[in-house]
Write the structure tokens for this entry.
Amino acid sequence: MRVMVLILALLAALRTTAATGAAGPATLLADGWRQYKDRFLTSEGRVVDNANGGISHSEGQGYAMLIAERLDDRPTFEAIWQWTRSNLLVRGDGLAAWRWSPQVPHVADRNNATDGDLLIAWALAEASDRWHVSEYRETARLIVAGLATKVVTSTRFGPILLPASTGFAGKDRPDGPVVNLSYWLFPAFKRLRAVSDAIDWDAVAATGKRLIELSRFGPKRLPSNWISLAPAQPEPASSFPAVFGYDAVRIPFYLAWGEPADRDLLKLFSPLDLSVIDVKTANPSQQLSDPDYGAIANLVECVGPHSPVQWKAFHGEFYYPATLYLLALIAAEEVGEACPR
């Protein structure tokens, strides 16, 4: 009886520790990944965006592949990759169609999304090394070649990543070229340098950091989600709402996860305001209220000011914040001493 009481007390203590955020990122990550797979991943390997009509997109597939690789979950990685290859790699140029819908036709728009392609290539490169699958590395190389041809272009600011192969260049819209700085996946660039030199990764990274420095709009000096490079200096793109929000919150996230030299810009975002903010007026229109978004603020706080943080347990209500939560935990483990406990 005494042994049973002690066991029950220990289990209760462990539950309390996880609930209060005292557990470390590695423990929370393993538990969160189990729940994530149950809630957002089909048996075929499709990642379901439950806040957007159950669609899937290249970004979500790439994110989940990367998480599976980091957790050495090869069966899940392979399922996600096989679904992605069969259903999204339909363009014939190495890039993935950005959106798959449960309705027919499943792929109505074959345009790509640059961040999704970068994530898939990054995950494949990492998986190639972990599990010694040369095919993964070759596919990553082909994706980079496609990006080099279709989305990397020169501007007065340096080489940029267009958000997609069509729709964002100067010839496509009056305020073009238009960029989204959350598509600069700084932690991916270092890994992809070893896969292909078809893109000058250092130059692209330097342009991204320069644009982050220049794209500080309004009273709060924040970048908007979508930015026009048509004027002499960057401006909020006229064809999109001028807000810092669900996209741009990933800018400091990727800076914190990148190389130490990438992190000098974090001071522009600390403390991170988890809101959708009109960059012209500084007025918040919506809170990023899902608890899982707090993991991004944690990462920025512990890597930037080097403040100890507490990690809360996985909430997992919606695909997007749940994904960023798991990635923030992975990043916290990888940056090591830069993120104190």
Summary: The chain has one domain: 24-334.
